[in-house]
Amino acid sequence: MIAAFAGINNIHEAALLLQEMIGSRTQPSQTTIVTMLSLCVDSAYLWYGTQLHCYAIRHGFEHYLPIENSIVDMYCKSGRVSVAPKVFDMMAGHDKISYTVLIAGYASHREGIAVWKLIDEMISRGIEPDQIMIEVIRSVWSPKENHGGGLFAWNHSLVAALVQHG
């Protein structure tokens, strides 16, 4: 039912159903939490998303990577990009999705230097960019723009390699 409400972007009904579920002492699945977090990307529902974040911590879901990635994504998309890297840094591990979510968040908020530092970290940990990552990189990088004070000159070889890879 929650997924059905999520499918029509009805966070109010989905939230009521989740509250009823928790009230009856039925623990939601990890998938249900990820679904609800995806509905909380609108800043109008950020309060509910932060409550879900706390719920995930209190009930042992905080080290389930899809939930952690969804929490980072929620903070990025709701405009709280300053909170997202704090959550990212506290994660037990990172995968390509983890990096893509945070890089996309930085890119959408025009945080060019943070994008490139995170890409450097990702590559140094042996995680290769895929086509989705390349499109995120292309969205933040342009040789005609100055992303973060001379970023083009600072990391031109990395940009060229990544764009060529895609």
Automatic annotation (TrEMBL):
One of this protein's GO BP terms? RNA modification
Asked if the Swiss-Prot or TrEMBL record annotates the protein with the keyword Lipoprotein, the reply is no
Which Gene Ontology molecular-function terms are recorded?
Answer: RNA binding
The residue intervals holding the PPR repeats read: 95-129
Q: Which keywords does the record carry?
A: Repeat
Instruction: List the Pfam families hit by this protein, alphabetically.
Output: PPR
Q: Matching InterPro entries, A to Z?
A: PPR_At4g14850-like_plant, PPR_rpt, TPR-like_helical_dom_sf
Q: Answer whether the UniProt record assigns the keyword Nucleotide-binding to this protein.
A: no
Membrane spanning stretches: none
Q: Which domain of life is it from?
A: Eukaryota
Annotated protein name in UniProt? Pentatricopeptide repeat-containing protein
